[in-house]
Amino acid sequence: MVDYEFYSVIYRGKAIAPDEWAAAEREASATLERYKRKYTVTEPTVTEPAGTVDAEKMAVCAMADVLMYHAKAESGALASAAIGSVSVSYASSSTADHSRQRQEKDTYQAACMYLDIYRGVC
């Protein structure tokens, strides 16, 4: 389990609010557990100047960011805003590719940024 402090301090995530973290982390962790059941997932040793970084936790954070991005895009969340002359626009799920297949691909790629995932014969 990855807590919000790890997400905001170590991973330096800013896209997910504290009150949204539990749900995003739960979905990302469940997805990673599914990968572990289906594929060979290994955690490389990554050393930073401050010490060893937990690659699996970093992967969960990256995956949570992707999942939150897709959730907001599907809901037509605010895409941009301006205060000076009042301008607003909303993301359109019909104009962007936010299909389940795209979400799964993006989530997998986020996990691969931190973990080695072997899916079979090369």
Q: Any idea what the shape is?
A: globular
Kindly report the oligomeric state of this protein. single chain
Task: Say how many strands there are.
Answer: 6
The end-to-end distance, rounded to whole angstroms, is: 31 Å
Helix content: 40-55%
* Low-confidence sequence ranges: none
Question: Structural class of the secondary elements?
Answer: alpha+beta
The biggest sheet amounts to: 2 strands, antiparallel
Can you walk through the features of this model?
By secondary structure, the protein is an alpha+beta fold. The protein contains 4 helices and 6 strands; from the N terminus they run H-H-E-E-E-H-E-E-H-E. The strands form 3 sheets. It has a two-stranded antiparallel ribbon with strand order 1-6. A hairpin with a 2-residue loop joins strand 2 and strand 3 (51-53). The longest helix is centred in the N-terminal third of the chain and has 21 residues, at 18-38. The model has no long low-confidence stretch (mean pLDDT 82).
Sequence-ordered SSE layout with sheet pairings:
Layout: H1 4-10, H2 18-38, E1 40-42, E2 46-48, E3 51-53, H3 55-74, E4 78-82, E5 87-90, H4 100-112, E6 116-118
Antiparallel strand pairs: 1-6, 2-3, 4-5
Helix pairs in contact: 2-3, 3-4
Supply database-style keywords.
alpha+beta; two-stranded antiparallel sheet; 122 residues; 6 strands
Give me a quick take on this structure:
This protein is of the alpha+beta class and 122 residues long. The chain has 4 helices and 6 strands. The model has no long low-confidence stretch (mean pLDDT 82).
